[in-house]
């Protein structure tokens, strides 16, 4: 009966005072395990609502995506659009939409509306839900306690950047999908045929943003590197520096279209100049704290390595890949652009892996002092992720939303969807 009442008030708040739903859905996630994922959907729906009122500044990634969407409105079907893109028109504005058909389809779906904040809205919902459904699923399956759910959920939400999600869109969406696929890949028991079938799901994040290819390759290398050895660590640490030299060289030598595409992306991402203009101090702090968080997780993982490498340990694949993703990311630290981008998957994966491990410290470690030190390490990881999350999200796009702060908290859902901003290319 209580769950029905809570669900009723959540829907009521969602319709007439959406931000009140954050309270009821938050309580629902914690106290109603059965419907926790439904309450989570309400939660991410509400935090995504403000972006419905968004109009991008000229030059923002979203302005180029919105421009491309307006061009896509000229096509009668998605098939016609893709044929046109493959017929030598892959670049529309700044981006190559031929290589990201899933994201292109989302844009095409809303192209006739000319209210393209709907694209950012949908991407925001999917991104935050994919990131957070992992820890809520852990809680539903009774693998973690309420307090770890709360801290971990807050840390994962804040690990993502709201403005970057709603403007750049593709990368955050791709990384959130990658993390969710990895989680369920680690959770679901599969035979050889099942594993091959599940591999298809890794195409989804790849077809949203091809930069996820590095992490997909590490995932498929897992059978060969599932035991942590010094040479596998060294291989992952040096992987990107070697690729940064090798891919452009091979692209110029062979002239292959795919290699040329990755070579151009690597060269663009290796340039720190344009990226540094955005918010230098914020990026710098996030990178330094990210490095500290990575080293804390590496210490935690290596301390418990023998226990984690037990073949029967649940989510072993996820925690080992978190370790390797962290090592790989350290190898990109010289390229601030790429390193900062990698943190979009490394941060939430470290939070989730830490949450899994913190529940097992008592059974893994007999020495009380060691046990307390590991709890302290986990606490530091949580604290640093929450701290930098608040700091990193200070660039909330309030100046590009046609609602005031009071409007954001008091408008009902019908008003949010009424008279949505219509796109036009403002070059001022």
Architecture blueprint of SSEs:
Elements: H1 2-16, H2 21-31, H3 36-48, H4 61-72, H5 78-86, E1 91-92, E2 95-96, H6 101-109, H7 117-140, H8 146-159, H9 162-167, H10 170-187, H11 192-199, H12 203-206, H13 213-220, H14 222-225, H15 230-254, H16 257-270, H17 273-276, H18 280-303, H19 305-308, H20 316-330, H21 336-358, H22 361-364, H23 368-392, H24 405-410, H25 413-416
Antiparallel strand pairs: 1-2
Helix pairs in contact: 1-2, 2-3, 3-7, 7-8, 7-10, 7-21, 8-21, 8-23, 10-21, 15-16, 15-20, 18-20, 18-21, 18-23, 20-21, 21-23
If you had to describe this structure to a student in words, what would you say it looks like?
The chain is built from 25 helices and 2 strands. With 428 residues, it is mostly helical. It has a two-stranded antiparallel ribbon. The N and C termini lie far apart (56 Å).
Features:
globular; mainly alpha; transmembrane; transmembrane helix; single chain; two-stranded antiparallel sheet; about 425 residues; membrane
């Amino acid at each position: 009966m209580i769950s029905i009442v809570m669900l009723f008030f959540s829907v009521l708040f969602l319709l007439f005072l959406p931000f009140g739903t954050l309270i009821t859905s938050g309580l629902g996630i914690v106290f109603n395990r059965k419907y926790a994922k439904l309450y989570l959907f309400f939660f991410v729906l509400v935090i995504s609502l403000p972006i419905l009122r968004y109009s991008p500044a000229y030059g923002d990634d979203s302005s180029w995506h919105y421009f491309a969407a307006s061009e896509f409105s000229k096509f009668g079907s998605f098939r016609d659009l893709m044929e046109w893109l493959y017929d030598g028109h892959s670049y529309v504005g700044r981006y190559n939409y031929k290589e990201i058909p899933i994201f292109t389809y989302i844009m095409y779906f809303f192209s006739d509306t000319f209210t393209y904040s709907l694209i950012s809205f949908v991407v925001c919902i999917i991104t935050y839900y994919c990131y957070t459904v992992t820890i809520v699923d852990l809680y539903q399956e009774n693998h973690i306690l309420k307090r770890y759910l709360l801290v971990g959920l807050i840390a994962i939400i804040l690990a993502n950047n709201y403005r970057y999600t709603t403007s750049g869109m593709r990368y955050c969406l791709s990384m959130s999908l990658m993390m969710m696929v990895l989680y369920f890949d680690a959770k679901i028991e599969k035979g050889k045929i099942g594993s091959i079938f599940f591999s298809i799901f890794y195409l989804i994040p790849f077809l949203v943003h091809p930069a996820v290819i590095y992490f997909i390759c590490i995932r498929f290398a897992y059978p060969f590197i599932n035991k942590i050895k010094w040479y596998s660590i060294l291989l992952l640490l040096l992987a990107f520096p070697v690729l940064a030299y090798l891919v452009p060289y091979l692209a110029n030598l062979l002239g292959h279209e795919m290699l040329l595409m990755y070579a151009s992306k690597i060269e663009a991402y290796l340039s720190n100049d344009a990226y540094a203009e955005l918010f230098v101090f914020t990026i710098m702090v996030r990178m330094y704290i990210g490095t500290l968080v990575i080293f804390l997780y590496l210490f935690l993982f290596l301390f418990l390595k023998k226990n984690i490498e037990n073949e029967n340990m649940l989510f072993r694949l996820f925690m080992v890949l978190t370790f390797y993703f962290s090592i790989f990311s350290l190898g990109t630290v010289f390229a601030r652009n790429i390193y900062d981008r990698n943190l979009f998957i490394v941060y939430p994966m470290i939070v989730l892996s830490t949450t899994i491990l913190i529940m097992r410290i008592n059974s893994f470690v007999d020495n009380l002092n060691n046990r307390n030190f590991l709890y302290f390490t986990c606490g530091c990881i949580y604290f640093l992720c929450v701290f930098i999350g608040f700091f990193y999200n200070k660039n909330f796009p309030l100046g590009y939303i046609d609602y005031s702060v009071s409007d954001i908290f008091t408008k009902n859902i019908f008003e949010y969807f009424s008279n949505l901003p219509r796109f036009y290319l403002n070059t001022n």
